[in-house]
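G., the chain you wanted modeled:
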Amino acid sequence: MATRSLFRGRALPLALVAPQIAITLIFFVWPAAQALKQSMLIEDAFGFGSEFVWFENFESVLTDPGYHNAIAVTALFSIGVMLVSLSLGLLLAALVDGVTSRRVGAIYRAISVAPYAIAPAVAGALWFFIFNPTVGIVTHWLGLVGIDWNHVRNGDQALLLVILAAAWKQIAYNFVFFLAGLQSIPRSLIEAAAIDGAGPGRRFVSIVLPLLSPTAFFLMVVNLTYAFFDTFPVIHAVTQGGPGNATETLVYKVFRDGFIGLDLGRSAAQSVILMVVVAAMTVVQFRWVERKVHY
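Predicted structure as tokens:
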């Protein structure tokens, strides 16, 4: 039977939620309001003056071919990161879940989770060096089989490299949640399906995947947000948006226009657009995609 906690007065519940409200106001609402205000200004690069221009910055951004390229790159990059990290995270979780020895399973779990402890910039630098066109060990192996790898001048290779680097960093996070989801599935269901003649593939598709759908939905939302925002250090360490803007995502374009080009108004307008797009995508996911989730 569910129980309810009752407070005598409003002081205590307000005091309990006050830290969270303060954090939300200071680190989300106030910066968002500042970005919206700055997006309607044309400012001097050194902060000596500003002019209120309403929505001219948004019009300039939305008609910029470079911004259209960043949208396409972000779409490909986000889908690639999400698919690679989710599929490999699920594969590793299924393999570790099938290990019967506790000691061996613990070793496998520790190895699988280790990449998540690496800073994104360090992960990017690691992938940059192993795929370096001159001294990279993987580049050397690819050359032995006739593949010319040089992501410094090949945009498609550069995009593939940052997708792999960003996904590798996120696989460990997905692995932990998928493994927890797999271990929460009653073994009696799997055994009953096996007795009825269902093979491993059939059991996985018909029983395991539907029961993992809440976990998969949560990870899809998290991975999409990660691909949009948290992959900036990886891209900056590996390609810096190049070559020829082939890996310039929306977040990286905000940085390049604001901190390198010193066009603060356009940069703020891009950040506002990005915030609206991510919020809309999250709403769509919860409104329509969640309908196919089995709780």
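The chain has one domain: 43-290.

Shout if anything looks off.
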